[in-house]
Give the backbone structure.
Amino acid sequence: MSSFEKRKDTFESKFAHDGEIMFRVEARCCKLFGVWAAEQMGLTGPDAETYAKEVVASNLEEPGFDDVKRKVVPDFETKAVDVSDHVIDTQLEKFMSEAKEQIMKESGN
């Protein structure tokens, strides 16, 4: 194997690894956000965990968090929870940072 092929294989492995880490970070972010959203709606215990899983699943529709917001905002409206778009965005940013930190610790990075 030439050094170019080795470099190519190394780059592809790193790219795949980074993609996997980012997927895990986004999933963790959505779980944390889902738990927070459940608390805002008065859900606890298994109901909160189930809701958090629904939020994680909603993130698989498209890149970014617009799909998550489309899931959570109507649920907030149904439960008469008054949370602004700014607060939602702020919470998503906060949980993204927290998720990144958690995953990096778990990965040993």
User: Anything to note?
Assistant: The domain at 25-107 is CATH 1.10.790.20 (Major Prion Protein). The chain has one domain: 25-107. The helical segments are 3-40, 45-58, 66-78, 85-107.
